[in-house]
Automatic annotation (TrEMBL):
GO biological process, one term: glucosamine catabolic process
Gene3D superfamilies on file: 3.40.50.1360
Annotated active site: 67 (proton acceptor), 138 (proton acceptor), 143 (for ring-opening step)
Listed name of the protein: Glucosamine-6-phosphate deaminase
C-alpha cells in the first residue's frame, strides 16, 4: 500500500486524474472500475477537460461502476447511472455499450449479482479500480460486516451512510434508499490495481483505521492492505490522523 499526500483537494484530484489518464493511454482496451460520490466529481471534471483539450481517448475503455441504489431506475436523477452520465459519460467518447452499472431495479438481486460478476469476467477483469471511502469505512457499499471475500450482491445501508448521502435526496436520510447493489470486497480485491481517493477532515479518522489498523470486516477498506498494487491518494486534511 502506498499513501500519497497532496496539500489540498484540488491537487489531489489533479493527481488522481493524471494517474487515470496515464493508465488509459497505456492500454488500448482498459477496464475501469468506477466510483461515484462527491470525491469523484472533480476528478471526472478534469478527465472531461483532458478529453476536450488534449484528446484523451476513451474509445477503448470499458467501465464497471461499483454500486447502484436498489429501487432507483437508470433514468432516476439520483441513480448512479445518471450520476455517471452527468459527470463523465456524456462528455467523452466512451461507447455507452461498454459502460456497466448494476441494475437497481433487478427483480432477482442474487441473479443480478452473478450476472454483473460474469460481465466483469468476460472482459478479462478490472485493470484499475477507483474508490472513495465512506465514513463507515465502506468501499463500494460494503458496509461494516461485509465478508472480505464477498461478491456483487445487495447490502443494507447503515443510518450513518444514509445521512452521509442525504444531500442528494433533499437532505432527508429517510429518502435515501435503504439498500444497494454493490461489488463485493472480494470483487474489488481482484482488480489488478486500485486507487482510493479520500478528501477532507471527515475521512481522517476512518482512513487512519483502514490504513494503519487491523484488517477487519468492520472496516471494509482495511482489506485493501491485502492488495499488492493499491495506492491511497489523500489531501492533508484526510491524512491528518495518519501516524
Ligand atoms: C460510490 C461509492 C462510495 C463512495 C463513498 C464516499 O460509488 O462506492 O463508496 O465512494 O461513500 O463518498 P463521497 O465521495 O461522497 O464522500
Amino acid at each position: 500500500m502506498e499513501v500519497i499526500i497532496r496539500p489540498d483537494a484540488e491537487k489531489t484530484a489533479q493527481l488522481a486524474a493524471t494517474f487515470i489518464a496515464r493508465k488509459i493511454k497505456e492500454k488500448q482496451k482498459i477496464v475501469l472500475g468506477l466510483a461515484t460520490g462527491r470525491t469523484m466529481e472533480r476528478i471526472y471534471a478534469i478527465l472531461v477537460q483532458m478529453h476536450k483539450n488534449e484528446g484523451l481517448d476513451f474509445s477503448g475503455c470499458h467501465s464497471f461502476n461499483l454500486d447502484e441504489y436498489i429501487g432507483l431506475s437508470a433514468e432516476d436523477p439520483n441513480s448512479y447511472r445518471s450520476y455517471m452520465d452527468y459527470h463523465l459519460f456524456r462528455h467523452v467518447n466512451i461507447d455507452l455499450k461498454n459502460t456497466h452499472v448494476p441494475n437497481g431495479m433487478a427483480q432477482d438481486v442474487h441473479s443480478e449479482g452473478k450476472r454483473y460478476e460474469e460481465e466483469i469476467r468476460k472482459v478479462g477483469g478490472i485493470d484499475l479500480q477507483l474508490l472513495g471511502i465512506g465514513e463507515t469505512g465502506h468501499i463500494g457499499f460494503n458496509e461494516p460486516l461485509s465478508a472480505l471475500m464477498s461478491r456483487t450482491r445487495d447490502k443494507s445501508l447503515t443510518p450513518h451512510t444514509r445521512r452521509q448521502n442525504a444531500e442528494m435526496f433533499g437532505g432527508d436520510p429517510e429518502k435515501v434508499p435503504s439498500r444497494a447493489m454493490t461489488m463485493g470486497v472480494g470483487t474489488i480485491l481482484e482488480a489488478r490495481s486500485i486507487l482510493l481517493v479520500a478528501l477532507g477532515e471527515s475521512k481522517a479518522s476512518i482512513l487512519a483505521k483502514a490504513v494503519e489498523g487491523p484488517i477487519t470486516s468492520m472496516i471494509s477498506a482495511s482489506a485493501l492492505q491485502l492488495h499488492s498494487a493499491c495506492r491511497i491518494l489523500v489531501d492533508e486534511a484526510a491524512a491528518s490522523q495518519l501516524s
